[in-house]
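Title: Comparing notes on inverse folding

I've been comparing how different people in this forum approach sequence design from structure. To keep things fair, I'm posting one structure and asking everyone to reply with a full sequence. Here's the target:
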């Protein structure tokens, strides 16, 4: 009878070890997934002189970035110059035009795991101030 109890305990312990090994192995094999971050550009002000900088967001994918601007109700389609910068202010994309009312995807030279922002201004020096509505993300996905 004692032999049967000891045998059952050993069998239980062996199953427990297999389960623990499986849990640890699964934990080591999985990689964390970073979620795509999207920043709102509600009432983001741009002007014809000087660059305005959006909030910084972490990049999680090794793909391009997205700019999505809503059409201005009062002023129609406005053209904006924009490019992506890192936290040191170094350009990580080329300067590109975007028109309000469209969604754009651009290539960049950014590295996942770091933070980036957009620099934006109006197309012409004499263009006045404009408040944008829309969003942007450092990740295309």
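Reply #1:
Here's my take.
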């Amino acid at each position: 009878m004692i032999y049967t109890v000891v045998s059952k305990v050993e069998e239980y312990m062996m199953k427990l070890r297999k389960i623990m090994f499986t849990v640890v192995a699964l934990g080591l094999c999985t990689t964390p997934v970073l979620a795509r971050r999207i920043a709102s550009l509600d009432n983001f002000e741009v002007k014809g002189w000087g660059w305005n900088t959006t909030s910084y967001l972490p990049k999680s994918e090794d793909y391009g970035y997205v700019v999505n601007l809503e059409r201005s109700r009062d002023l129609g389609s406005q053209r904006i110059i924009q490019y992506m910068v890192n936290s040191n202010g170094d350009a990580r994309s080329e300067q590109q035009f975007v028109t309000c009312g469209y969604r754009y995807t651009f290539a960049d030279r950014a590295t996942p795991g770091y933070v980036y922002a957009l620099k934006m201004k109006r197309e012409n020096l004499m263009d006045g101030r404009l408040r944008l509505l829309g969003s942007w993300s450092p990740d295309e996905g």
